[in-house]
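Try it yourself: sequence plus zinc ion, in.
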Amino acid sequence: MNVLQGLQPAAVFTAFEELSRIPHGSGNTAGAADYVAAFAARHGLRSVQDEWHNVIVYKPGSPGREAEPPVILQAHLDMVCAKQPDVTFDFTRDALRLQTDGEWVWAQGTTLGGDDGAGVAIILAVLARQDLSHPPIEAVFTSDEETGMYGAAGLDFSLLRGKRMINLDSEEEGIFTVGCAGGVRCTVTLPMAAEACTAPAYTVAVRDLQGGHSGAEIHRNRQNANRLLAQTVAALGEGVRLASFAGGKLDNAIPREASCVVCTHLPAETLAAAARQAQQTARAGEDTAACVTVTPAPTPAAAWTAADTARLLTFITTAPAGVQAMCADLPNVVETSLNMGVVACDAAGVQVHFALRSSVESAKAALLERVLQTARACGGQGTTAGAYPAWEYRAHSPLRDTLVNAYTAQYGKAPQVIVIHAGLECGLFCQKCPGLDAVSIGPALEHIHTPAERMNVASVGRSYEFVCRCLAAL
Ligand SMILES: [Zn+2]
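Structure, out:
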């Protein structure tokens, strides 16, 4: 049954619904890539698929425009898999349960994958359309953007000739992104020694913090659950040993929850007072619903030594955190930041995962060095992965000018043109294709990366229309 039947433009929503039936979480995009390749074949278009499950589809220019320089249209195939806790859903097998009220489209109990299925579907509809004036199109569908842009990183850029690119991975209609921060992930491992323990044990937990995206919301100075928890325990002073410590789910999400088990002969009231103090501090800021609790726990067989407990707490509380610098020439844009997203522990020790971002490569490198130095000072060591370059703002951008003019003609007002602190694949494309002129746009999506994600139907229609007008105007 076609849930989205009747929604306009039909070609876009049909493609979106077909894609929604194919599981396409990050790391699992082979099916989606095959779908795109089959879609291309169905429309008589040549496509190339690589081992990363990236797909490039080539569409010749419309009659009379065959010899013009090509334009790249780009979106990512993978989606974030998140579901409501009470929902049974297998992201490796199940079709998304699409719902619509005619105004919005969402998926029952799960992420929708509007990020970036909306972009994919708009491009597919453009590829299928016959009555459009356009230069040659190189449509690039990348894999695994959400987990580290691994598809774009592996893409063979010699397959592309385009020097202009419209990326469809933004989620606010009327906002054009023309630059973004670069980033790198860093994991610090602290080896931890355990010994027998007989002291009373407590679980100290932080929950109900605001959290948020580590790029888009890092400047709000929201509490980081891992850090707040470590500060709470550190405030107890000596005489406390940790038996475990864990918090956060993704390195690029500001952690909302963290908990640890402490073993101590301190009076329970001392722990409760520290928790109250931490909760008060958090609630005085943006985290008005913050809860910090202490509850008795069974005494574990072993806990980390006092020395290792101190090293761990020192690392978590003193490693650089949050916003490090603001852009000098752009108002209210963060230049350099980092997020201690995840702390996890196993028998061998504790792993602390960071996401670092900066629009200045040297500032990113310097910050990374500070994290690694703090790690070494605390007896740990770090590794890095998933580095992606900044996408630098271009003062001269004919593509941006064309898009701004097309937008103004269609909407009767100018778009907002911005540079963001979050990462986009445009950075990688610009690094690999020197001189590439790129703009990122997209239809209105809300609550992306959460089960409340939804996509605005009318906005998808206008955005599709806008892409078509831009192709005609290029
Ligand atoms: Zn996306």
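One thing you can check immediately is this: Residues 221 and 256 are 13 Å apart (CA to CA).
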